[in-house]
Request: fold
Amino acid sequence: MPVAFCLLLYLCHSIYLRKYLHWFLKAQQIEQVPLLEVDVTQAHTLQAALWTTMAELSEQNDAQKVCLVLEGIGVGALRTIVDDFVVLKTQSRLMNNLPELERFAISVVGKGAGPAIVIETQERMKSADPTTESEFDELKVTASMKSFVDRLVVGQGLCPYTKSSVKVPEGLQELNILPGPIGYRYSGFSEVCHIMSAFWNCVCELISLPGESLSTVILTMPALTGSTTKADDSEPSGHDRFVAVSELISRNLCLFRGDDVLEVLHFYPNYDRDLIEPKDKPAHGHLPPTSWLRPMLRHAGHDDEAANFSNNDDIILSSNFQRRSPFPAVVITRVSYFEALAGSSNEIVDLTLDDRSMVKASGVPSYAQNVIKLAVEGPEKLQEALQSEIASGIGCQ
Reply:
């Protein structure tokens, strides 16, 4: 087919799509559907706009319909995010713990004629709880998180470039990476759209600033525990809910390869790696599988600890404390910090597992050393310190 004819077909198709979009938007106006023009040009601002709009809609009990007009974003990006949301709603393992998303449906205008996304919500069921903000005190929660960073991350030396709870990274100046402030951010909602909105707005803030102005963000989400009186698993699905939200965060970040720029680390008061899927494979933002601990110890030269390793060992119990913070949180930091450590503690290696299979693993020396440090401290002492931070965060001290 001649190139000129192909170009003519493309132009006619583009004109048709634009006419269709114009007609569709006019029809929405006649139906009094709100049309929101959103000035976004990047995937992270698209995600922030989408989840923030969904968060606002989640507060309404009645059925709603909104059209986001996104002239600066390609239709392909819109299709990607819509298709992933459609798939998400078919995955019962996640949706059982994210039931508020059942109300939502999103679609690209005209089955791909965009650039616009339609967001629709069903009427809230009478049995469903309305969206409310928690009664936690933001200042106390933030102080508790800083205390946790000082005690565990800095005090135990779990992160090689974190020397304080207010500024990172340290010791990378020779690589032209200057330390900058840690931003402590807060979301008081338990509803997932609000949490996702807070996460993506943190991402936008971090990307918009140089590292010397904002190096890392710690977003704390105390209401994710499901209780406004204590930060534990008093509700049966507390940890499962955290797992689902953390998976959604990582999934959304990786959707447009945001994990090439930013790294996330997930934290929870009762963090248990054995309850996170996939159990025996890496899960983005989480600790390595428990089944990798002994091979990591062995690979890092800690033969005695590896030989004494057992399923009831304090090594396993203590390892989870690497991610047990007083409140649910996600740390958002720059991949460049990890890449700066490549060739040392962050080197990717071939790790031989107990079944003799081989996997790729990074950070093996650091993980192994951290596990040993915490095992020496002991789970009882670690839990006592954590409970003290939880109590201070909810005003019980």
